[in-house]
Amino acid sequence: AQVFQAGTRMDGDTLVASGGRVLNVTASGRNVREAQAAAYKAVDAIEFPTGFFRRDIGWREVVREKL
Fold it and tell me: What are phi and psi of 11, to 5 degrees?
């Protein structure tokens, strides 16, 4: 997985959010389901107590793959 940041700044030695959408997590897999699982595994490893993330991204394609 790869994590891209925006809307962040350094506060001394600490990276802090400065507003808006601050992280984008992407991942690859043999199919969409595996890529989605890898991305969400990376999201779960991020320490961001006040952060919010969506768990619905990619669900339509995961459903299509099952057909």
Answer: -120, 90
